[in-house]
Amino acid sequence: MSIFTEILAILGFVIRALGFAVLGFGVGRFTMDAYKKAAWQVQIALAVGFFGLLVGLTNYSSPASMGMFAIGAGAAMLMSFATRKEDDPEESQKS
């Protein structure tokens, strides 16, 4: 029975890591999208809340969970900073 519990523990660690990556991506994406469109008071609240969440996760979660959260948030921020490809005017005239 101990092999079964070890397999379930490993499966739990993988699911927790994936969950923190998705959470990090979602929180990072929401923060960056809302940050661009908000007033300065809301921008301050978003920044303080995001960094407060990072500090809380660093203190109270496992290092692997925090790392996956950081990877997810980093991916969201990289996607947010990437330049958007504008439609080519010639392409829109052909349609």
What features would you describe in this structure?
The chain has 95 residues and is mostly helical. Helix content is 86%, strand content 0%. It is built from 4 helices and no strands. It starts with a helix and ends with a helix.
Question: Notable features of this structure?
Answer:
95 residues, 4 helices, mainly alpha
Radius of gyration: 19 Å
β-sheet strand percentage: under 5%
Q: CA-to-CA gap between the ends?
A: 64 Å
- Please state the overall shape, judged from the principal axes of the Cα atoms: flat
> What is the tally of helical segments?
4
Query: How much helix, percentage-wise, in residues?
Result: over 70%
The structural class is mainly alpha
Please describe the biggest sheet, giving its number of strands, its sense, and whether it closes into a barrel: none
Write the layout of secondary structure elements.
Elements: H1 2-37, H2 40-60, H3 63-81, H4 89-94
Helix pairs in contact: 1-2, 1-3
Give a quick precis of the structure:
The chain has 95 residues and is mainly alpha-helical. The protein has one domain (2-80). It has helices spanning 2-37, 40-60, 63-81, 89-94.
